[in-house]
Design goal:
Length: about 325
C-alpha cells in the first residue's frame, strides 16, 4: 500500500472541502472496497478523509411520505429497518443478497453505491484496463467476459456495476443527495447518477471531485409485491450474473430493474407497459441494443427467464 495522509472530518461541508483541497484525495466510509483497492495499488489516494464521524447514520421520514437514508447507514441496519422491510421490501432483500453479514455490518449506503467494478482485469495490474489506466486498452474484450456487461457498454469498457442495493434503488426511483465543496447541495435522480462508459470508463458517476453523498431519498411507498432475485455462480458471497428487482401491483403493472448486465442498474421502462397484460418481456425488449460477447451471451436468456420467474412469483403473492 502506498503512503497516504489521513484526517477525520467534522462536518459534511468540511469533508467535501478537504477532499477538494488535496489532489487525489478520497473519502473513506466502511473501507470494505477502498482498502482492498489500495492494498492492490489500483487506487492510490494521497489523502483520506474519514467520514465515519459525520452524523449521517439515520433513517428518517422525509417530506411527502418518503424516507431519507443517511449516507453512513450500514447495509445491515438498512436491511433490518422496520420501514424499509415494510414499505421497500425490494431494497431490504437486495441488501441481504449482497456480500456477507460481516461486510454488511461495515458497508455504508454511499460506499455501496460507489463500489468499483469486479471485472477481473480491473484487479490485475499487469493487464490493460481503460478504467484503471485510461488509454491502456481493455483486456476483457478478448478475454474472460462471463461476468461482464451485455448492454450499455462501449469499445472502451464492458464492465458491470456490482451493487445489488443500487438495482433496488433504481426500481424505487431513489434520489442521491450531495454536498459540494462550496457548500452547494443537489439532488441527483439515480436514473442520472451513473454514467455509461463511452470513451471515459474511469468516470463512473455524475459526482465532481470533493462532492460528498449525504443521503439517499426514497419517494413515498408505492405498495405492491417486492421481489429481488439474484442468479450467481455460488449461493452466497458472489456477485450477480443477472439480478432482477421488481415491484409488482395487483393489476399486474410494475417496475423492473436488472443488475449484472450493464455498467449501471438497468431499468427497463420500455418493457414495463407490457407487464399488466401478463406477458413475458423478451430479452430483445429487456436488453434492446445488447452486444454480448461469446462468453456472456447466455445472460440474455437468463435475464428473460429470471424476470419471468420473478413476475410469476410476484403474481402468485399479490
Ligand atoms: C468479498 C466481498 C464480497 C462482496 N459481495 C457483494 C455483493 O454480492 N453485492 C454487493 O452489492 N456488494 C458486494 N460487496 C461490496 C460491498 O457491498 C462494498 O464493498 C461496500 O458496500 C462499500 O461500502 P463502504 O462503506 O465499505 O465503502 P468504502 O470502501 O469506504 O468506499 C467505497 C467508495 O465510496 C466512496 N465514498 C464512501 N462514502 C462516500 C460518501 N459519503 N460520499 C462520496 N463518496 C463516498 C469512497 O471514496 C470509495 O471510492 C462485496 C465486497 C467484498 C469485499
Ligand atoms: S471491461 Fe472495463 S474494467 Fe474490465 S478490463 Fe475492460 S476497461 Fe477494464
Amino acid at each position: 500500500m502506498k503512503a497516504f495522509s489521513y484526517e477525520r472530518a467534522a462536518t459534511p461541508e468540511a469533508a467535501a472541502a478537504a477532499v477538494a483541497r488535496v489532489p487525489d484525495a478520497k473519502f473513506i466510509a466502511g473501507g470494505t472496497n477502498l482498502l482492498d483497492l489500495m492494498k492492490l495499488q489500483i487506487e492510490t489516494p494521497a489523502h483520506l478523509v474519514d467520514v465515519n464521524g459525520l452524523a449521517l447514520d439515520r433513517v428518517e421520514p422525509a417530506e411527502g411520505g418518503g424516507l431519507r437514508i443517511g449516507a453512513l447507514v450500514r447495509n445491515t441496519d438498512l436491511a433490518a429497518n422496520e420501514r424499509v422491510r415494510r414499505d421497500y421490501g425490494v431494497l431490504s432483500r437486495a441488501l441481504l443478497a449482497g456480500a456477507s453479514g460481516q461486510l454488511r455490518n461495515r458497508a455504508t449506503t454511499a460506499g455501496n453505491l460507489l463500489q468499483r467494478t469486479r471485472c477481473p482485469y480491473f484487479y490485475d495490474t499487469r493487464m490493460p484496463c481503460n478504467k484503471r489506466m485510461p488509454g491502456s486498452g481493455c483486456a476483457a474484450l478478448a478475454g474472460m467476459s462471463r461476468q461482464l456487461a451485455v448492454v450499455g457498454a462501449s469499445e472502451a469498457c464492458i464492465a458491470t456495476h456490482p451493487s445489488d442495493m443500487a438495482v433496488a434503488m433504481r426500481a424505487l426511483d431513489a434520489t442521491v443527495e450531495t454536498v459540494r465543496p462550496d457548500g452547494a447541495r443537489r439532488q441527483i435522480p439515480i436514473a442520472d447518477f451513473y454514467r455509461l462508459p463511452g470513451n471515459t470508463p474511469q468516470v463512473e458517476t455524475e459526482l465532481s471531485q470533493g462532492e460528498l453523498i449525504t443521503a439517499v431519498r426514497l419517494p413515498a411507498p408505492v405498495g405492491g409485491t417486492h421481489v429481488y432475485r439474484k442468479v450467481r455462480d455460488r449461493a452466497s458471497y458472489a456477485f450477480a450474473l443477472v439480478s432482477v428487482a421488481a415491484v409488482v401491483q395487483a393489476d399486474g403493472s410494475g417496475r423492473v430493474a436488472l443488475g449484472g448486465v450493464a455498467p449501471r442498474p438497468w431499468r427497463v421502462e420500455a418493457a414495463e407497459p407490457e407487464l399488466p397484460r401478463g406477458s413475458r418481456p423478451t430479452a430483445e425488449a429487456l436488453l434492446a441494443g445488447a452486444r454480448p460477447t461469446r462468453d456472456n451471451a447466455f445472460k440474455l436468456a437468463l435475464a428473460e427467464r429470471t424476470l419471468a420467474a420473478v413476475l410469476a412469483d410476484a403474481r402468485r403473492k399479490t
